[in-house]
Write a structure and sequence with these properties.
- This protein is mainly α and 390 residues long.
- The protein has a two-stranded antiparallel sheet.
- A hairpin with a 2-residue loop joins strand 1 and strand 2.
- The longest helix is centred in the C-terminal third of the chain and has 26 residues.
């Protein structure tokens, strides 16, 4: 299974150009493109129309289910609504991954033909559909995606040797999770991101930061690389650029992602070409081409909002919950067993009890009050008195 039809460098180029296109479109029309990272993803799949169709179908269905159905019956707001939207979109994506037919397309001999882009892209598009309307969002996403695709295709014409997807999910043995289980890790990560901020004022690099950092714990150097780029990005943007430039909100976030992307891109290139360090041995992020580009930017953006220590602690705790919880799910429902279920469950429960401490206390409080009410009813009944209502 391949993530992209193209090699690592065109994928990262599309990501950076997508951020620029999204910001320019927003500055000109004040309409967002699902997220500033979405146009780059769309550009990479312009050559595979079926993927775009499924992506937008997922976004439409997620938008309808959450904003038109669930929100009418359950009080959803802010981060909670977005988390439900992400979970819904990823559930639809999981179904499409399991049902999609495989076949040849362009230079690939066997790829999934009817599956959406990424793990959260449809949810990001659906989120903007509710904010600014379906028509505006679809128009913005497709326009910026096609505009980014043009220079990417021109770059591929000049760099034909990097056309084939040499850096895709084929090397996913460098991370701790099989690719089909990554959506589960992202769901756990999204839940921990909400609870860490709500209960402890900690951040973990957006909704997906803990999941991706946890997956890369197979190689500590990968995690060190990502945090080093995040710290450098935070220092450059907050200490050098923000005092002299008008950066806030979307502009600041876009700047963080672009600076982090450029720094990590250069760092990985230097490691391979100058220092002779294998990208597979050092930052095997050839297997997940965009991980070293966007995760440091997410971490740096949260560092600016909450401080470096709180992001470091939040990311570590979130990863300690998301990764073991996902591995425990794999132990329960996967095809292979390693006998680590008890240990994984204990680690995830320990981290989860801290992350969701307020919710756990509230749950036990309600259970305790219910037990007291039942006990009082039994006691009153034994005395022949009218029982109370619990």
């Amino acid at each position: 299974m391949h993530d992209y039809l193209f090699g690592t460098e065109p994928v990262r180029l599309a990501f950076v150009l997508g951020i620029l296109a999204s910001m320019l479109y927003y500055e000109r029309r004040e309409i967002t493109t699902g997220s500033i990272v979405v146009p780059g993803y769309i550009a990479l799949f312009v050559a595979v129309p079926s993927v775009l169709v499924v992506t937008f179908a997922n976004a439409f269905l997620s938008h309808w289910l959450v904003h038109r159905q669930i929100a009418k019956r359950v009080l959803l707001y802010g981060r909670v609504r977005f988390m439900v939207l992400v979970a819904t979109s990823m559930a639809i994506q999981a179904v499409s991954l399991n049902l999609t037919p495989h076949g040849p397309w362009l230079w690939e001999s066997d790829i999934p033909l009817w599956v959406g882009i990424g793990y959260v892209v449809p949810a990001l598009i659906a989120h903007d559909m509710d904010r600014q309307g379906i028509g505006n969002t679809v128009r913005a996403v497709l326009t910026t995606g096609v505009l980014v695709a043009i220079p990417v295709m021109l770059a591929l014409f000049w760099l034909r040797n990097d056309t084939v997807a040499t850096g895709s999910l084929a090397n996913f043995d460098s991370v701790l999770l099989p690719p089909q289980w990554v959506p589960v890790a992202v769901i756990f990560s999204a839940a921990s991101a909400w609870a860490l901020l709500h209960n402890h004022g900690l951040r973990q690099g957006g909704f997906v930061g803990a999941a991706y950092v946890g997956m890369l714990w197979a190689g500590p150097a990968q995690v060190m690389f990502i945090f080093a780029v995040a710290l450098a990005t935070w220092a450059v943007v907050t200490k050098v650029m923000m005092p002299t430039m008008l950066l806030f909100g979307r502009r600041k976030f876009a700047t963080m992602l672009i600076v982090a992307g450029i720094m990590s891109w250069i760092g990985l290139w230097l490691g391979v070409t100058i220092f002779g360090v294998s990208s597979t041995a050092y930052a095997t992020i050839a297997s997940i081409p965009l991980t070293p580009v966007f995760v440091p930017g997410l971490l740096a953006n949260d560092m600016e909002r909450s401080g470096v220590p709180r992001v470091a602690v939040g990311t570590a705790v979130g990863a300690l919950f998301a990764l073991p919880a996902t591995l425990a799910v794999i132990e329960l429902f996967g095809e292979q067993r390693s006998g680590r279920l008890v240990g994984l469950a204990l680690v995830s429960l320990a981290a989860g009890s801290f992350i969701f401490s307020s919710q756990v206390k509230g749950l036990f409080g309600r259970i305790g009050r219910r037990i007291e009410a039942v006990g009082a009813n039994v006691a009153y009944g034994a005395l022949g008195r009218e029982p109370t209502r619990g």
